[in-house]
């Protein structure tokens, strides 16, 4: 017998996070490219992020169609810190309403694979968070390096910097903390 699912977040009702979703009017358009293995991952953060940002799309596939993702009327940048040409948000000098931020949701190995597989992703300007980015709060999943963040955290910090608004995304980060605590309690039970 299958467990009843929430109609909104598609999670089992016992792990529904809908009450943590916010209604944030982000100025920067966000496209989350999710590796298929992350779609139903119980520790994933992309769903909460997507359902909290009014101007976002969540695309789950390994075969990315450039035409359905890129907004040609905006400057598109890839939030991915590795690579010689990665520049900080401050150096990129982006206009929020004229920027599309693409982020890859998946393990670092899978993210690198998506970039390697799709040459158009390699060609996008790469954006790195500043050196003052806080350490990750995401202690329920292993990272390769201490400075690596979850998808939700990295996008929140990037939007905070691009939109120059320290308070706007703080409630989502607070809800993310609650999301993590619920997961920890769920595992104990």
For this structure, the CATH topology is: Alpha/beta knot
Uncertain residue segments: none
Spatial order of the strands in the main sheet? 2-1-5-3-6-4
Helix content estimate = 25-40%
Mean pLDDT metric = 84
Order of SSEs = EHEHEEHEHHEHH
Strand content: 5-15%
From the coordinates shown, what is the CATH architecture?
Answer: 3-Layer(aba) Sandwich
Q: How many separate domains? A: 1
* CATH level 1 name: Alpha Beta
Q: Which shape, going by the Cα principal axes?
A: globular
Structural class: alpha/beta
DSSP strand count: 6
Distance between the termini: 21 Å
Number of helical elements: 7
Model description:
33% of the residues lie in helices and 15% in strands. The radius of gyration is 16 Å and the shape is globular. Strand 1, helix 1 (46-52) and strand 2 form a beta-alpha-beta unit. The protein contains seven helices and six strands, in the order βαβαββαβααβαα. The chain has one domain: Alpha/beta knot (3-Layer(aba) Sandwich), CATH 3.40.1280. Strands 2-1-5-3-6-4 form a six-stranded parallel beta sheet. It has 189 residues and is an alpha/beta fold. It has helices at residues 46-52, 66-69, 89-92, 108-117, 119-123, 151-163, 170-188; strands spanning 29-34, 56-60, 75-79, 87-88, 99-105, 126-128.
């Amino acid at each position: 017998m299958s467990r009843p699912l929430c109609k909104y977040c598609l999670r089992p009702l016992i792990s529904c996070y809908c009450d943590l979703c916010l209604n944030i009017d982000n100025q920067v358009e966000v496209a989350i490219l999710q590796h298929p293995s992350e779609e139903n991952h119980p520790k994933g953060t992309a769903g909460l992020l997507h359902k909290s940002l009014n101007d976002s799309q969540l695309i789950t596939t390994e075969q990315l169609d450039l035409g359905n993702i890129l907004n040609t009327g905006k400057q598109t940048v890839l939030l991915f810190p590795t690579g010689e040409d990665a520049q900080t948000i401050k150096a990129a000098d982006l206009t929020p309403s004229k920027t599309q931020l693409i982020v890859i949701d998946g393990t670092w190995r899978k993210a690198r694979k998506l970039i390697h597989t799709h040459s158009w992703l390699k060609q996008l300007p790469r954006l790195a968070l500043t050196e003052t980015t806080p350490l990750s709060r995401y202690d329920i999943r292993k990272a390769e390096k201490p400075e690596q963040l979850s998808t939700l955290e990295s996008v929140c910090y990037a939007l905070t910097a691009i939109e120059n608004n320290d308070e706007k995304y703080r409630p989502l980060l607070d809800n993310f903390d609650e999301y993590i605590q619920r997961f920890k309690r769920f595992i104990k039970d």
